[in-house]
Amino acid sequence: MWSAVYDECPAADYTGIAMEYGTLPPLDVMQALRAEHWLNLHPQAPPAAARQIRQQIKDAFYTDTDAWKGQVISRARQALFQAVDGLSSEA
Known about the structure:
The protein is mostly helical. It has a domain at 25-65. It contains 4 helices and no strands. Helix 2 (26-41) runs antiparallel to helix 3. The radius of gyration is 18 Å and the shape is flat.
């Protein structure tokens, strides 16, 4: 996706952002990332372990609650409005 803008609009100036929304303490997220990396290197892992690791990585980046989803939407809207304000201001 990141490179599509360059293909479609080669003369445009582009600044992309990636937003992350916290779900767990950083050490827990790091452990989930490490487990997923291990799973990618060990595709023959037992199915139960693979399921547990996939759930661990999902839990590290997604919370299935209306409150969390509302916070994500609110923060995304805030970032969008800030971007528009920045684009419309005189440099």
